[in-house]
Amino acid sequence: MATLFSWPWWKTLWMDSLAVFWGEWLDLRVRLPQVAVAGLVSPLIYILAFGFGLGSSLPTPPLGDSYLAFILPGMVALSSMTISFGGTTFSLCGDRLFTKTFEEFLLLPVHPLSLYLGRVMAGVVRGLMTSGAVLVVGALFIGRPWGFLNPLFLTLLLLNCLVFAGLGILVGLTVRSLEAVGLYNNFLIVPMSFLGGTFFDPATLPPMLKALVYVLPLTYTSIGLRAAVFGDWRQFPWYCFAVLGCVAVLLAALGAYRFTQQQD
Fold it and tell me: Which end of the chain has fewer CB atoms < 10 Å from its terminal CB, N or C?
């Protein structure tokens, strides 16, 4: 019999997660253009309003050739957060509250962690597609797309999608109506969009406000992505990987537990 940490156990967990993801992918693939475009509106508005409008009157920031270049990594982080969270949350809410297929989903003969990982992978795909579209459009404005295609940048982007897709699962399993989803979005996602280091360098803030900003996981994504593109790799903030990785693991544990306790 396979033990908990033997290879067959992990192989089964992974294959079950892929099976859950495949069910999500069959529904997602027919809406790929909508998913890719869904998160473009807000980042593009911010790029035009802040990058070209406000940015033209600001001095050159410490990282990047212009304020537009400075905020572009933050816009990628913002779009991946919004779509990973929103897509996962509404997908679960649709299954639980409208189609009433979530009870059948819970009856799948797989480990609760596989249920969590399969849904998270679908959220990650949503986030990567939208942030990739933002990245392509933004890179055309600043003229250096190769700076975003490095392992540090892509790994941090993946971790950010994992974190917020996991958070979306916890919210999707908790809420009882779409109005409640709006509350989480207004009081959690929207404030994080502006306070998560997307438009400014958190290191320049007063100590009290800095303590608040560094509680937000998006801050570490924005800092890390910006440093991966414009910073010196010898001074790269490696702690961003540790923070986001720990948050992702914690959310996975909470998500798997919630699947074992869910009653719908």
Answer: N
Which of 86, 81, 41, 46 lies closest to 67, judged by CA?
46
Amino acid, single-letter form, for residue 241: F
Residue 58 burial by CB count (10 A; 0-12/13-18/19+): exposed, middle or buried? exposed
- 195: amino acid identity, one letter: L
- The tokens for 230 are 């414009």
pLDDT > 90 fraction of the chain, expressed in percent and rounded:
39
Burial code (b: 16+ CB inside 10 Å, e: under 16) for 18-55 equals: eebbeebeeebeeeeeebbebbbeebbebbeebbeeeb
Range with lowest mean pLDDT among 38-42, 184-188, 189-193, 235-239: 38-42
Q: What is the pLDDT of residues 21-68, one digit of tens each?
A: 998 888 888 877 777 777 677 777 877 777 676 656 666 666 667 778
pLDDT digits (tens, 9 = 90+) for 140-162: 776 666 667 788 999 999 999 99
Taking a C-beta distance cutoff of 8 angstroms, is the pair 225, 157 a contact? yes
100's CB contacts (< 8 A; 6+ apart) are: none
In this prediction, residue 1 carries a pLDDT of 38
Q: Identify whether the C-beta of residue 221 lies closer than 8 Å to the C-beta of residue 164.
A: no
Distance CA 36, CA 134 (A): 9
CA 230 – CA 213 distance, rounded (Å): 22
Q: What amino acid is encoded at 167 in this protein? A: L
> What are the sequence ranges of the domains in the chain?
17-261
Question: What does the alpha-carbon distance between residue 127 and residue 129 come to, in Å, rounded to a whole number?
Answer: 6
